[in-house]
Write a structure and sequence with these properties.
With about 200 residues, this protein is mainly α. The protein has a single domain, classed as CDP-alcohol phosphotransferase transmembrane (TM) domain (Four Helix Bundle (Hemerythrin (Met), subunit A)).
Length: about 200
């Protein structure tokens, strides 16, 4: 939802922030993707140790690097098929590691209902990009839904930083599957229109 509305309009601002942080040093987009993933792993570890606020900070940094890699790739004309694949795979690993860690955390603190919600969230978050990939394999785009990756990241970061990750994981469990359903319906309508136009 945010991706569709904002698009690449933040690229100039992101480029300025990038220059300030790295003093104009030229880092490869794939390097930025890997750095974002490493910060995601740090977030995973902090969640396991119950340091949720620190986990939220590192997840925010990871999300920022995820914005950086694509923006820098576009501005430096280094967009590649491999870079797109690597970024997508590392994003999935980060998402699933973080949500799995949240589920384990809830088991540790004996909040089993929320642990189950985390498991349900993991399934939904894994299926969302699968529906998109399957639609693309059929030649149709499927970039739609109430809870795409930017919204998921914001929800998790806010929950970790402000201490209500339990409520956020319930929202994630529900809306991730709503997003899957939205994409299925969207694909069905596009497929029917395509068939009718033949």
């Amino acid at each position: 939802m945010l991706s569709a509305k904002i698009g690449h309009s933040l690229d100039p601002l992101i480029a300025k922030v990038y220059k300030c942080i790295f003093f104009g040093k030229d880092l490869r987009p794939n390097t930025l993707s890997l750095l974002g993933f490493l910060f995601g792993i740090v977030c995973f570890v902090f969640i396991l140790f119950g340091r949720l606020f620190l986990a939220g900070i590192f997840l925010a940094i990871s999300g920022f690097f995820d914005l950086l890699d694509g923006s820098i790739a576009r501005r430096t004309n280094r967009v590649t098929l491999f870079g797109g694949l690597l970024d997508s795979v590392l994003d999935r690993y980060t998402d699933l590691l973080v949500i799995s860690a949240i589920g384990i955390h809830f088991v540790f603190v004996n909040k089993m209902v929320f642990a189950v919600m985390a498991m349900i969230s993991t399934i939904g978050v894994a299926i969302i990009p699968y529906v998109k990939a399957r639609a693309q394999a059929e030649g149709l785009s499927c970039d739609t839904g109430i809870l795409e990756r930017p919204e998921r990241m914001i929800l998790l970061i806010v929950g970790l930083l402000f201490g209500f990750i339990d409520y956020c994981i319930v929202i994630l469990a529900f809306l991730s599957h709503v997003t899957v359903l939205q994409r299925i319906i969207f694909f069905k309508r596009r497929a029917e229109l395509l068939k009718a136009s033949e």
